[in-house]
Amino acid sequence: MPVDATEAVISTGPRGLPLLGSIPHFAKDPLAFFERLRGHGDLVQWRLGPRRGIFLSRPEHIGELLAGVETDYRHPELGWAFTLLLGNGVVVSEGADWRRKRALVQPAVRPRQVRTYATVMAECAEAVADRWKPGDRVDLRREMHGLTQRIAVRTLFGAETVGREAVIGDAMDVAQREIGAEFRGITLFLPPWVTTPGRRRLKAAVAVVDEEIARVTAARRASGERDDLLSRLLAARDENGLPLTDRELRDEAVTLYVGGHETTATTLTWAWYLLSRNPVARDRLADELRTVLDGRTPGFDDVKQLRWTEQIVKETLRLYPTIWLMTARAKDGSTIAGHPVAEDTVLWCSQWSAHRDERWFPEPDAFRPERWAEDAEHAVPDYAWFPFGGGPRACLGARFATVEAVLVLATLAQRFRLDVDPGDIHPRPGLTLQQDRPVLARVR
How many domains does the chain have? Predict the structure, then answer.
């Protein structure tokens, strides 16, 4: 649903400090800072250090930005730490290089291929359910990360990494923390040759990831093609008949791993937290699972019938979007909402801020999965909800992540109720929107 356009005015945001701009407030609490910016208007000028920026809040402006990346705006500079981990994969590359890589990677995550991975998703969730016992006390963040690690490793790498999930997983956890810390601090502006303790930890973690992916890739070439993502990437050829290089394979494997593991684990953890705090929604979930599944393990064809389950996932992504920030840089001659924008100005939009805007979501802080019903009272405007981005650079793994979250939630929730310990849990922004403390729960 589109939003009626209003006359857009660029307003002035926080004044900031000399040289630093709004770095201190942004670094202290980026989420609260973006909500403050939204209070200044729909298009707000501000500075992050020496960088001029404009923050966007209206869905039609966000849609204009996301649709214009690659044509009207440049892909953002994501920082040294982010690039060290993801290399020059499809998330980072630009122009013709990006178009080539997208064409090579996209077939591996199309719905037809996701169907083949659904069995692995459900099997891994069943293994967790078989291990849990009523009365157990579990750390849901750790459990969901372990579960989605196994799914990512099996669907991406196949059998070669079974028993070695923790090698990649632990290194990725370190990388995620250090990228988040660098993004929020002054080190974002330091040149790559400046060494800090955090950068040393990140380099060591990335070296572990590189070594493991090189080992698995070599083993796969020796063993032949299998039905997993890595085999599809190895077999892919561009329009000139050329395969991905070893470095390109590494970059795309890391990108798919982060997208298939880190984001879904975080979403599932938030979903259990929200369900524990909303017993009516949880009871309705149990009713749907009894009706649709009747005790059997869910499969890909069940996803379209598990409507309330999917609505829970969508509402979780609204309240706690795993990716909470997107940016782009203006080119010479760029405009936004009809206003000229100086070259290299950074245009910002935040899923966290947009998803909690009461103009698009009545009672924005309330957990209401019914918002996503086909006959919902208030239709959601286009680009008011964009957990997977949008436009030509929308997340390629969106369907994979959604199916995975629905199947895992359904598999576990039809066997157990998870009562999260009392007390609020707050988001901690890093590479993704993590919880600020362990999410401990009793298994019922």
Answer: 1
